[in-house]
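Troubleshooting: if your tokenizer reports a length mismatch, compare your output against this known-good record of 225 residues.
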Amino acid sequence: MKKTKYIFLGVTFLISFACALYVTMLVFPLNSFAKTKSESAVLAKIQDGDLIFQTSESSQCEAVRIATKSKFSHCGIVFMKDGKQFVFEAVQPVRMTPLEDWITHGRDHKYVVKRLKNAATVLNAQTLQKMKTYGNQFMGKEYDAYFEWTDNRIYCSELIWKIYKNGAGIELCKLQEMKDFNLEDERVQKVLKERYGNDIPLEEKVVSPSNLADSNLLVTVIDNY
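Known-good structure output:
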């Protein structure tokens, strides 16, 4: 009788385990585990000081993309903090966003990561700390929807450009003027009208995500577009 009881308990355990395993496979199929492992390996390639670009969904970001004739409308700089990856970005307000969260904010979760070609020698611990210290003054500041070249408010590509310029002594690209962009599209005109009325600052210094992405000082590390 005792032996039969143990056999019954053993069979019951095996059936329960099999059922639990079946449910687990339904909820977390093998390819989802593989995908997570693969994504982790990709994210592990990203380093302190890398630039990351995406396409955002807002009407303003769409206007930026059209005006600059680029697929990119938003960008940030990757900073390591306590061993974790964050994106320092100028949104409303300027903040540090966990890297994986930042990726989910982009269209179809697609992004491109670029790195200074000589990052291994230039972006040493001292320079990176200087970049972070300089960038800290913008933490919590308002997003600059008017794209003014001041430090009172700041927009995404301006933040990156100034961090590299003032923290590492590197101008990633030449600045442009607003009039250099494609301003004729009606979607761009609509945003300009909302922002400036009839007084568009055509000679204002500006830098766009595409200006940074096209910099010949950078090399592409990840491109999943």
